[in-house]
Write the structure tokens for this entry.
Amino acid sequence: MMLAEKQTMDLIYQRPESLSDAITHYCPGCTHGIAHRLVAEVIDEMGLREKTIGVAPVGCSVFAYNYFNTDYVEAAHGRAPAMATGIKRVLPDRTVYTYQGDGDLASIGMAEIMHVAARGENITVIFINNAIYGMTGGQMAPTTLPGMRTTSSPNGRDVELSGYPIRMSEMLATMDGAGYIVRRSLHNPANIRKAKKAIRLAFETQEHGLGFSMVELLSSCPTNWKVTPNEALTFIADHMVPVFPLDDFKVHPAIANLKV
Amino acid sequence: MAKQLLKGNEAFAEAAIRAGCEGFFGYPITPSTEFLEHMAKRMPELGRAFVQAESEVAAINMVYGAVCTGKRAMTASSSPGISLMMEGISYIAGTEVPAVIVNVMRGGPGLGNIAPSQGDYYQMVKGGGHGDYFPIVLAPASVQEAIDQIGLAFDLADKYRSVVHVIVDGNIGQMMEPAELPPMRPLPKDVPEWAVNGAKGRAARSLSSIYIDPKDEEVTNIRLVRRWMEIEKNEVRYTEYFLDDAEIAVIGFGTAGRVASSAINQAREEGIKVGLFRPITLAPFPKKQIEDLSKHVKSILVVEMNSGMMLDDIQSIVQGRVPVEFFGRMGGVTPFPDEILDEIRRVNTNEAVINGQVRAEWLDRLEKLIEEGK
Amino acid sequence: MPIKGWIEVNDLYCKGCELCVAACPQNVLALDLDQLTPKGYHPARLITAGCTGCNICAIVCPDAAITVYREARQKNKVAINA
């Protein structure tokens, strides 16, 4: 295509401003990157970049603070909701969100996530559920599927020995302090679009002061699942969605009626 | 402002508010709970943040978040709660953000009891959390001193971007005594240049304790050590009592030091040349002063409400120049002045010797005391 | 006539994961096996005509490596057709 021809074209999509210029350390095809991008797009679209403070977790997304062009802090493992609470309580007019994986949020940080929701803390949580511990090399997570092989469940998760996966969204939706709790998936374009809309509504929940908001995102880990990036997306659709149904578990009426 | 009869914990909490504390995050635990209760009432009145957290783990991480914004924030707890906070304290130290933590110490280890103790000396003074860091540790001995030192704690925390522990025991936390609160300080308008508060009109910032390249971590460690050496140079604090002509120096901090001062008054009436050295900063420790002291006295008697933790530090400073004797009560037992007086008399009559058996001999005497019903 | 589109892949970010290749409804993307990115991956490329600028590749890209362009709409197109 000639340059002249390109100049007559409309720009449809470019890297969002709220992402930093850094190259992520994520493995090729890891959907953490998609989740980052969607969060950055929503922050851009809502004009929140200069008032947002993110809270990074421990896990694969430990370096999230390098990847966003917003202020960021790095929490201890599982403690991001507590740290976010401290920030939000002293700076209530800022947009505060945590970005946490399943080990961080649903295992070591279980108390913090339940109580931040119970308090109706006006923050947003982006919860990446990929059913495995990525950073430490593929151990069993609280969301690992029954029968799923990991380095710490080498014969497949035996529910008799190590219990069942935890459905965080369903549990958190029982909290009166929660304003918006949904589960989405990142395994194909249609679901990614829905995920983005959910992230938008979660941040809208916070901006409208309607309490705790969380978007759980079914995400892939091609490296530790030992499949190709595209096969990993198929795994989400075939195996994760049946265990973790994609649904709206709690939506504040004001958000249900919101046009975005 | 005139002196009022003030209850320790409540007065400390009010002192923190007046020093500009904008966020308090805590969890109830005896004997520190009145601190949290006072904050629960006062902070919302002033439009400041108060959260009763789900645990001490969460509480310290709320403090961590709040102080990252450049605001003054704190927590108060007691020994088992402080143990739970150690992870967060290490992160705060590693991120080089200021935080004030009050520990109203109680008997331990484990669940122990709720009686006054100084058994957390090692945990507080030597760091307690993981990694290379040095907290500042203040040890007041009265309600008034604690009030004053909480204001000082915030100032030191800000000045050095450091963790500052204020350690008292249940005696001081629960005690009512006349004291004067400082006036309310205006809240600062300026935000520190490192604070994370939304990247409005500036480049985005992040605060973290992670340095994945060991070389970067080492550079950070060097910065922390250098800062600590600066603190050691500038911030040593202590009080002296009857030391000018003393032949015996009693060294004790907090309540133990305070009880010792009563014993010293009596011993002086008996003509014994004894004085008190009371460290106020346990970290930085008054090393130089204790070294000098050991050159002027005949013997030293260390008094603590633990198994002789500060004793170890003092022995390493004195280096056998003079005998160092020890008397301590543990497990939440506060020594009586007459017990310390007996120890002073003993050291005065039987010339103390250096035989490396200080702790063993103390335990023998202590067990005899207990048998006598003391 | 189908809408004409165009994409650019930033080799700094592309990790050759092939999510865009698989997702492209027009099958006009492939990894360029003759090239390596600075990080050592084969980058994705538009290999043939037919891109409609539908944006699907950018939606699935985990590394925000893709910029998408689409033929400008003619403002009076509706009027001409009518």
Residues 23-150+162-256 of chain A form a domain with the Rossmann fold fold (CATH 3.40.50.970).
